[in-house]
Amino acid sequence: MDVRRSTAKQRRAEAVVAGMRVFADHGFVTASIQQVADEIGVSQPYVFRLFGSKHAFFLACLDELERQLLEVVRQAAATSPDDPVAAMRAGFRGMLAGGVISGLWLQACAAARRDETVAARCRAVISGILGEVARLTGAGMDGLARNLADGALVVMLQAVGADLTGGSLAAIDSLRAEKETP
């Protein structure tokens, strides 16, 4: 039997993927590093050794969220040069489907209310994404604001379990209809 040990870099990447799920589901304060350690088969102290602190681990998860978002944006622009914005939106919706990205983002925004370091990191993620979208699409301020607003709407609708298969407007119409039905 050939047993291979993972490098610290590989374990760190595994921990970030697991951490994104745990933080998305439980938030920064109540998330347990032990859950992450159990999932990737290491000890809790080892996870702390990889990141230094729970706070640094959370920030590493936000770094990965940004990396994934930028990958979706860049891939969309490369594969759909005629309409990169539509491809970016489709890629973003696909990325949100599992709930981890939207959950982590909402938890990060909640943590940002009381933690300036997390708030600064969230602002940097938004700034980086907006800058890349502007660079790749030539979108101006109005287009960027509209795309950011639409993205925030999709995150919120996905988080509350709205059916997004028909798009945001169909989901809003469905929610409005629920209110009108006695």
TrEMBL record:
Residues 9-69 form the HTH tetR-type domain. Keywords: DNA-binding, Transcription, Transcription regulation. The keyword Nucleotide-binding does not apply. Residues 32-51 bind DNA. Coiled coil: none annotated. It holds the Pfam family TetR_N. GO terms for molecular function: DNA binding. InterPro entries: Homeodomain-like_sf (IPR009057), HTH_TetR (IPR001647). The keyword Transcription regulation applies. This is AcrR family transcriptional regulator.
